[in-house]
Design goal:
mainly beta; Immunoglobulin-like; two-stranded antiparallel sheet; 9 strands; 10% helix; globular
Length: 191
């Protein structure tokens, strides 16, 4: 009697173990299956960027952007004294205009603005203009490199360009609308 009960109890488990998964994700191609340089597929090598201007109008660094086949590489260097030491939020903004030195509001809002969707950690986002923070050393200098798949070089180089904005504080990647990053302290036109 005990054997029959154990056998009856184990049958559903065996049946479940062999059932095919209903929600299996589609299989993705492997790197060897994707076209690359051997098939004539190369990064566009479109380069954009320019000077990074601080709140006082002084050039504090340089921005270089390289468009690739799967996203954009951002590289920024900040000279000593360019930023206050510590973390600073960075965002890509809608308009390539840094002429209102000190406030940089003419750069508009974030590229790809999503209502309540700001932040790389936000389940409702992220926005196309969200990128990781930058750390400034004790002397105010910084080196930064980040890659984003949220936007393309063509989108950055649209008719009115875009801007890279550096904020006073760190972006927490969740708080709306800008992650608590605070005032805009530096700006670079991207065209």
């Amino acid at each position: 009697m005990i054997r029959k009960a154990l056998l009856a109890a184990s049958l559903p488990l065996v049946a479940c173990a062999h059932a095919p998964a209903q929600d299996e994700p589609p299989s993705l191609p492997t790197a060897s299956e994707l076209p690359g340089p051997e098939a004539g597929v190369f990064p566009s090598m479109l380069r954009m960027g320019g000077d990074i201007v601080g709140a006082d109008g002084r050039v504090i660094g340089a921005l270089n952007i390289l468009d690739g086949p799967n996203g954009v590489m951002l590289e920024a260097t900040i000279e000593p004294g360019g930023l206050t030491p510590g973390w600073h939020g960075l965002h890509l903004h809608q308009v390539g205009d840094c002429s209102d030195t000190g406030t940089f509001k003419l750069s508009g809002g974030h590229v790809g603005k999503i209502e309540n969707g700001h932040g790389l950690l936000n389940p409702k986002g992220p926005e196309a203009g969200d990128v990781p923070n930058v750390w400034a050393a004790a002397d105010g200098s910084a080196g930064y490199e980040a890659f984003t798949t949220l936007i393309s070089g063509a989108e950055l180089a649209d008719e009115d360009g875009t801007a890279l904005i550096i904020h006073q504080n760190r972006d927490d990647h969740m708080t709306q609308p800008i992650g608590g990053a605070g005032p805009r302290v530096a700006c670079a036109v991207i065209k």
